[in-house]
Amino acid sequence: MFTVQFIKSAIERAIKTVAQALIAVIAASSFDWVTADPKAIVATAATAGALSLLTSIASEGIGPKASPSLVSDQHPVGPPV
Asked: What is the pTM of this model?
């Protein structure tokens, strides 16, 4: 389960999720730079990253072997349908 490739992929996904969550919170229309709570922003992003890691762990064994993905990354052979 915890191969080097799996860990690298899961961490990459979590980092992307943290960045996306930070951007989403900061870009929210109700975001106010004056009253913003940096701890809450970081906590929200960290929670999103933790959930991403947990999702990757839960997905192991469902998708491709040693991958945190639920879908195969292999392309089908033959002409497109």
From this structure: 0.71
